[in-house]
Design a protein that fits this description.
The protein is mainly α and 141 residues long. The protein has one domain (18-135). It contains 7 helices and no strands. The protein has helices spanning 2-8, 18-39, 44-47, 49-58, 64-83, 102-115, 118-135. Helix 5 (64-83) packs antiparallel against helix 6 (102-115). Keywords: Signal. Residues 1-15 form the signal peptide.
Length: 141
Amino acid sequence: MALLALVLLPLTACAGDPAEDYCATVQEHQEELTEIVAAGGPTALLGALDAFRDLQEQAPGDIRDEWQQVVGRLDDLEEALEDADVDPQTYDAAEPPDDLSAADRSRIAAAGRALVAPETADALEALQQQARDVCKTPLTL
């Protein structure tokens, strides 16, 4: 990872460079994401989805896969909840609504498992590390 930072560091000095643009976007969303994560709760990451999409759009090529992993898993969960007509703020997997079908429960559970899977955790860690190393900005995810 240190080698990657050394390779990318000179890129941040170039005007209009994707890494520079991305770092500006990281700084723009830093406070918002910190507040969302600090508030906690089961929907914190869903609350950050718009910011994550913006970061994904600005991401340089070396971290696009990581953003795709994170945003893709969140999109899947959001879609499963919306399709089931379930409010993410009140949904409790241990006590799902009585009228929720088994298929919807299963889809929501699968999306939740994918979100906390090691691949997604690794992607989140890589994104945070990249923000610290390249952008010199902590990014709380």
